[in-house]
Amino acid sequence: MKKLLQFGLLAVLMVVLAACGGDKEKETTDGGKDKYVIKAGHAASEDHFAQGSFEKFKEVVEAKSDGRIEVQIFPNGQVGGEREMIEAIQLGNLTMAAPSSAPLTAFSPGMYLWDLPFLFSDHEEAHRVLDGEIGAEVLTQLEEVGIKGLGYWENGFRHLMNSKRPVEKMSDMKGLKMRTLESPQQIKAWNATGANSTSIAFTELYSALQQGTVDAAESPLALMYAQKFQEVQNHLTLTGHMYSPWPVIMSKKFYEELPEDLQQVVDEAVLEARDHNRKLSAEDEAASLQLLQDAGMEVVELSDEAKNEFRETMKIVYPDIEELVGAELFERLMKEVE
């Protein structure tokens, strides 16, 4: 019965993706040129700045292409969770997405770099590294699996939430049923703090928290509020344990079939949307903290001693990630952030 249910859900997802169509529509502009349609999906709600980021991309692409490219946006996990969207891009059933980096590790090991806990001290450092040589190299590695990496948008620094008790020190983590990002290294890092961790697709997280399948999770503040997690979580600890980028990805086949001038349009639009996205992120992060408090969440700020305890404990995954990405790339990143 379980296998039949899984097959049925997969069939429904493929029907939805098929309804989105292929990469290129069989139509032309008034000038007789090919018209291209970008189908872009994301897992966040329409209230989250992810939607605003894609809308900015759409605005720039459609204006600069003189109508030769149309962008269609599918929010709220309409075309599947993040892993499903990545696979759909590989298959050509979806054109574009901006998932968390964690599910991309299953496709390209370089993405593990962004799984390193307490890697970046602030947004500026994260932007410098992601927009620099190392960030570009990690994106280029995606081409080996049929994915074009276009840049990095921002999800924000991640913080801990739970429904059981205030977490003021690491010993408070003991026994918490914790949802992590879809990455073995994330599970290992959180288990080291005393939690019992498991990965659950983001599109299933609200119901998992509501039903008590898990009683803790971590998320950027703006995403936390937009997804209404404050309705099912009482406690917020400002850990800032990880900066979460959104690698902007596209079907490599679709991108390479675009005329050169339209490739340039897409590249420029991703960068303009990136700057807009980071502005929205900063604004929403500050506002969301107050909104979460107003909604009744109890907020804890870790002491320097407690934060250092989390940092040193969760660094248990650093040697694993160094082995996965290669010592040379890992060491270059360490020098960049030192």
TrEMBL record:
Statement: the UniProt record of this protein carries the keyword Transport: yes
UniProt keyword Transport, yes or no: yes
Pfam families: DctP
A single cellular component GO annotation: outer membrane-bounded periplasmic space
GO biological process, one term: transmembrane transport
Similarity section: Belongs to the bacterial solute-binding protein 7 family.
Name of the protein in question: TRAP transporter substrate-binding protein
Source organism (scientific name): Savagea serpentis
Lineage: Bacteria, Bacillati, Bacillota, Bacilli, Bacillales
